[in-house]
């Protein structure tokens, strides 16, 4: 079903790297030290809109700065103090965020058939740490630092289209976030695969509500499922 495509572009955080686990590892202990009833989901929900707002208002800020400021804003929303050390801890935490268990194997399988591209709301230094965890060499890495804006800005998808058009590639965008990726991707005319990592959990977690109707072209619950569909094993009979 994916024969028309020869390149895959990926959102990284939420799709390949478990950013909710990474953020919650910092916000959870901080929040519950003041208010023990707060769950990780409570904290991620409080955090989500703050990060998106700061990215929108400060499009050229590097992602560690965005994380730190979003943490401070989340603290203000919850009336819990955030120290400079707390903010710095979250800002520097991206290289520690774990990859989803299926990401590396799925990417390696997909690389046998497609060129692989990253289109991510990240800075170059932080992504280098995540790339080491993923263990795959991408053919092109497009970061927010390079573009000077954060998804869902159309500028990021314009950068993706400029690259694939220059290489004569037909790209399919693979992402978890409807808000950051599928809504603007559809506006840009790019077909998409939704990796619905939160399929067994209610709500949007660390990702803002998309606030728009969008139906991705294909949906899978994991990267493993997508890789098996995109690069099916050839069955031979004796």
CATH superfamily of the largest domain: HAD superfamily/HAD-like
Number of strands: 6
Name the structural class: alpha/beta
Second-tier CATH architecture of the largest domain: 3-Layer(aba) Sandwich
Give descriptors for this structure.
single chain; 238 residues; alpha/beta; Rossmann fold; DNA polymerase, domain 1; 2 domains; six-stranded parallel sheet; 6 strands; 48% helix; 11% strand
Structure description:
The chain has 238 residues and is of the alpha/beta class. It has two domains: 7-18 and 98-230, HAD superfamily/HAD-like (Rossmann fold, 3-Layer(aba) Sandwich), CATH 3.40.50.1000; 19-96, DNA polymerase, domain 1, CATH 1.10.150.750. It is 48% helix and 11% strand. It is built from ten helices and six strands. The chain has helices at residues 19-34, 40-57, 63-78, 84-91, 103-111, 124-134, 144-147, 154-167, 178-187, 223-230, and strands at residues 7-10, 115-120, 140-143, 171-175, 192-195, 218-220. The protein has a six-stranded parallel β-sheet with strand order 3-2-1-4-5-6, sandwiched between helices. Helix 1 packs across helix 2 (40-57). It is globular. The chain starts with 6 loop residues before the first strand and ends in an 8-residue tail after the last helix.
Structure described in brief:
It contains ten helices and six strands. It is of the alpha/beta class and 238 residues long.
Task: Outline the fold blueprint.
Elements: E1 7-10, H1 19-34, H2 40-57, H3 63-78, H4 84-91, H5 103-111, E2 115-120, H6 124-134, E3 140-143, H7 144-147, H8 154-167, E4 171-175, H9 178-187, E5 192-195, E6 218-220, H10 223-230
Parallel strand pairs: 1-2, 1-4, 2-3, 4-5, 5-6
């Amino acid at each position: 079903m994916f024969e028309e495509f020869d390149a895959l572009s990926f959102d990284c955080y939420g799709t390949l790297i478990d950013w909710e686990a990474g953020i919650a590892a910092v916000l959870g202990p901080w929040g519950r030290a003041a208010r023990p009833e707060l769950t990780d989901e409570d904290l991620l929900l409080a955090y989500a809109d703050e990060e998106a707002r700061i990215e929108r208002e400060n499009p050229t800020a590097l992602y560690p700065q965005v994380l730190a400021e979003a943490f401070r804003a989340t603290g203000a929303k919850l009336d819990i103090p955030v120290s400079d050390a707390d903010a710095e801890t979250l800002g520097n935490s991206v290289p520690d965020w774990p990859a989803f268990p299926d990401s590396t194997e799925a990417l390696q399988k997909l690389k046998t058939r497609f060129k692989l591209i990253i289109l991510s709301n990240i800075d170059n230094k932080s992504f280098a740490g995540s790339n080491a965890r993923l263990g795959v060499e991408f053919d092109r890495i497009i970061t927010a630092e390079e573009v000077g804006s954060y998804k869902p800005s159309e500028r990021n998808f314009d950068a993706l289209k400029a690259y694939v058009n220059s290489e004569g590639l037909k790209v399919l965008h693979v992402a978890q976030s409807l808000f950051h990726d599928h809504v603007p991707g559809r506006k840009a005319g790019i077909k998409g695969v939704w990796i619905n990592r939160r399929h067994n959990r209610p709500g949007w977690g660390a990702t803002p509500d998309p606030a728009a109707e969008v139906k991705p072209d294909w949906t899978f619950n994991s990267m493993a499922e997508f890789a098996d569909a995109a690069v099916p094993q050839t069955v031979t009979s004796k």
